[in-house]
Amino acid sequence: MAPSLDLANLPDADVVKLAQQGREAAFRELLRRYERPVFSLIFRMVRDREISEDLAQDTFIKVLNHIDRYRPEFKLSSWLFKIANNVAIDHLRKRQLDTISIDGSPHAATAAEVEATSFDLTARQESALEEMEARELGSAIERAIARLRPEYRSCIMLRHVEGRSYEEIAATLDLPLGTVKTYIHRARHELREALERVKGPG
Amino acid sequence: MEHRHLLPDEIDQLLDGEAGFGVAPLLAHVENCPKCRADLAEARQMVSALERMPHFAPSPLFRDRVMTQVQVFEPWHVSALDTAKRWLPASRPTRFIGLAATSVFALIVSLSAVWMAVRLDAFLFFFDLAGQRVRAALFDSLGGAIASTFGSTAVDALRTGGVAAVAGVTSFLVVVVLAAVGLRALVATARRRRAT
Prior knowledge:
Chain A is mainly α. Chain A has 2 domains: 9-95, RNA polymerase sigma factor, region 2, helix turn helix motif (Rna Polymerase Sigma Factor, Chain: A); 96-202, Winged helix-like DNA-binding domain superfamily/Winged helix DNA-binding domain (Arc Repressor Mutant, subunit A, Orthogonal Bundle), CATH 1.10.10.10. Helix content of chain A is 67%, strand content 2%. Chain A is built from 10 helices and 2 strands; from the N terminus they run H-H-H-H-E-H-E-H-H-H-H-H. The longest helix of chain A is centred in the N-terminal third of the chain and has 23 residues, at 24-46. The relative contact order of chain A is 0.10. Among the domains of chain B are: 8-51, no CATH class; 150-196. The interface between A and B is large, with 43 and 38 residues.
């Protein structure tokens, strides 16, 4: 007997076409391919496993229930990451983690203006819960990333964890290319400083 | 390039592997400047650590939870096609053999149907002959029992009734047996319920 539809070797666009025809196996294949990257992005933004699962679930439900709107000239992964980033940022805005900056002026057009019109809540000493979260997240680099602003965090993760180009990140996050480069540059700078502090002098 | 260390932007340029005229002087400076070489190495280490960061996995039931909220409507023709494909053998030679065997079987059945249609009289003769043989066997085995139950009139009716009579008696006997079995099952169930 022939095996059921072999989807693992098909490109995303073909799997999406099968999903648009109503094949449940195609939906599950898309989930299988992207559940980890999407969940990881959200988890590193939100730092709460249960909430991250809920947000990742919302992301996939939004995308899969509107799979008929997918346009093949764009990458499915970009669409997924865009929605994942938006749900994570929305959640953080509601929650206002202590490492997040309060949004700058709505009229700010460039990254420099956003920074000039916003302020950071000073990071307080880690609580026991945060220490536990940090242990779960593991290495120093994870802890350093957790301290970045959400905008910087999503850019640096899309660049180096997901391997996206600057142009793809700009399209995914609906940001100008220059802003993406600025965010990544600043994220790298802050990460280097944080890692130097961990290493200590000498 | 002036005698200065690399700016953070320039280190980023080298990290991103950008090509172009501006990069060559930076690379040349790095070769001759231990501090910038160390800074660049450190930056590369950091990027490497970022690139090695693992993907976290959601819980094992994540996919099922998502699928319960995704509206999947598979048209009937898509399901039928998928089901048909599942019954096809995996390898080409097996598919070819299957197709050949199915074709031969279909040909035999078609030829038999054509023969029966053409030689219907012969077919009916053989059918009647078979019916007579079955009747004779039934009378031999059950004649005594039928006579004692229904009387000799019933036996005469069966002898002259033909296939319809045989079918009627057989159906009657089957119904009686099924009724007996069903009644026995009912009694057993009732006894079990009373016991509990």
